[in-house]
Structures are given as structure tokens and as C-alpha cells.
Amino acid sequence: MRMVEKVIAYIVRDGRIVVFLHPDDASFDESGLQVPAGTVEPNELPADAVLREAREETGLAGLRIVRYLGAAEYDMRPSQDAVHIRHFFQLAVDGEVPERWEEYERGDGTADPIRFELYWLPLRQVHVVGAGMAAMAARIIAEHQG
């Protein structure tokens, strides 16, 4: 079984978190609602990877790490013979951000760009995010309730 290092970004502002859907690709249907995330590249630190992935998937400038929330394993079987070691980060964004927007991740150019439909979800509803991506959200929810 492969061990794959991943990062998960909780971009939080005013008690809300950035989430997205992939509206054009049926292969993403099982994932449902997600937060920015991705693979740590060889020789890349998780802190660098989370900023890179968050920028690629959201198009947002002015992202910064607030804190590292911890790591957890996520078993991908039976869909993949892999276990993801997920590093969770809380991020903030400076500057103006729309309520809803689209972004396209272009990858390495060998495939069509992937469209992301992004919006702000109330943090207290983050439990609806799929694929175990909300695993560390409780660590920040209490701070933003009020």
C-alpha cells in the first residue's frame, strides 16, 4: 500500500470557509463538496504545498497560513490502494474576495482545465464537506461561533 502526503486548506474569514464543487466532471461526483487540497510534491514542505494548492484551486492572492492544525491518516481503499497522510492548515486571505466565483486549475497542460465553483460556507456547516476533509474543522469552529 502506498503512503501519499496530502494537504488540506481551511480558508476561513468571518466565520465562513471556502468550499467548492467540480460541476463539469462526473468523476468528481462522489467527492461532492470539498475544500482546497492536494498532493505534497517531492522535496516540498507541507506548508509550501498548502499555499500552492490553495492558490491553484481558488485563484486567490494574499493567502497566508494562520496555523497548522495537525495530521491524520485517511484510508483510500477500496478506490485506491493508498493511505493519505493529510496535513491540515487554517489559512486566511487578505483583500477582497467575492461571495461566489469560478476558477480553472490548468495542471501541467496535458488535460483540459478543471473548473471549480467556489463559495463561502458558514463554518458551522462544514460537516457537509466530503471525503473526510472536515476532520480537523472542530479545532477552529468554536473560535468563530458567537
TrEMBL record:
Entry GO MF terms: hydrolase activity
Keywords: Hydrolase
Record has Hydrolase as a keyword: yes
PROSITE patterns named in the record: NUDIX, NUDIX_BOX
Pfam families on file: NUDIX
Presence of keyword Hydrolase: yes
Top-level taxon in the UniProt lineage: Bacteria
Residue ranges constituting the Nudix hydrolase domain according to the UniProt record: 2-142
Cross-referenced InterPro entries: NUDIX_hydrolase-like_dom_sf, NUDIX_hydrolase_CS, NUDIX_hydrolase_dom
Protein name, per record: Nudix hydrolase domain-containing protein
Organism: Rhizocola hellebori
